Amino acid sequence: MSNSSEFYSNFKNQILLSINTCMPCEVLSYNEGSRTAKIQPLFMVKEVNRSPEKLSVLEDVPVLFERVKINNGQEIKVTIPEGEHGGHSGGDGKHIHTKLKFEEEVENVPVLKSGDVVLVVFAQRSIDDAAEGKLVYPGASRLFDIHDAIIVGLL
């Protein structure tokens, strides 16, 4: 391989290595109220002629959650085993509610614990103002930056 081919190959690899898409991270702490976490990326980085180093801890990383309708507001059947309910039971020893209905949306709030391994994605552009629901022009100074992390779930 010629020197110029090797240069461009290395140059291309360095550019690709600077693009963050997703990676596993360890949860160091979690604030359920703000739905943010402090995380340690589990991939290390290495520069030529240097030892691998861990990436910096990321703080205030937003955690994805869901708002759902249960059975689209329709009735569901719930069976409670005998002995776990103080009321009456049917002939089979189970207490049955046949008209249980969730009329409001339910938020599935994540429960993260210190030591959990999570999958983290990195936004294409800065999420600083967009995370507040504002229409923004994020500029081009931060592309696939590690500081635009979002936790999408447990691994």
UniProtKB/TrEMBL annotation:
Pfam families membership: Gp138_N
Record-annotated Phage protein Gp138 N-terminal domain positions: 23-83
Xref: Gene3D superfamilies: Gp5 N-terminal domain (2.40.50.230)
Protein name: Phage protein Gp138 N-terminal domain-containing protein
Lineage: Bacteria, Bacillati, Bacillota, Bacilli, Bacillales
